[in-house]
Hints:
Blueprint: E1 8-11, H1 20-35, H2 41-60, H3 66-80, H4 87-100, H5 111-119, E2 123-128, H6 132-141, E3 150-153, H7 154-157, H8 164-174, E4 181-185, H9 188-197, E5 201-205, E6 217-219
Parallel strand pairs: 1-2, 1-4, 2-3, 4-5, 5-6
Helix pairs in contact: 1-4, 2-3, 3-4
Amino acid sequence: xxxxxxxxxxxxxxxxxxxxxxxxxxxxxxxxxxxxxxxxxxxxxxxxxxxxxxxxxxxxxxxxxxxxxxxxxxxxxxxxxxxxxxxxxxxxxxxxxxxxxxxxxxxxxxxxxxxxxxxxxxxxxxxxxxxxxxxxxxxxxxxxxxxxxxxxxxxxxxxxxxxxxxxxxxxxxxxxxxxxxxxxxxxxxxxxxxxxxxxxxxxxxxxxxxxxxxxxxxxxxxxxxxxxx
Length: 229
């Protein structure tokens, strides 16, 4: 990479460091036990996961609220399964899921090692679209909070990645200019395109083996970062 010497690296959290899919699965398993739901977890997740991705896209685009996301993804999934619940029951399930989500805190392979490697060379930060109440718990319970100088959540800023304002706020908090920073994330839209437009260098963590977009670096596992930084 031809650039000015980097000083600061910004990470996405979910699906980049924190293994969201694995932890979410465990959380739903506990929720189903608590509420005694008569549905197979694998069947539920087959419908839920694409619906959840669609709702998060709508949330990033400010087309649904936080509450509509939490309710809607469950209502639609249960509709496909032919199950009906009152809004009170849906809200109870949604609340249980949020409580249980930071219960397991599996990280992607190599996350601790790469953070330890990078912290001696750069200042590290988090920019996340997740909800403040949950994201700080994830960082604390997975024992990676200590690596980061600043943590910027979309809920605090009032806009979500890829909106330029969240990147500007994160850069302001870090007291650094964009041209000597790097953003590492799993979403081409939210992380790579958003950071690129903010003037940052980018790394696309392509662990799903998707079609790669316009990123400075593409990696398939976190350890690959050592090949470039």
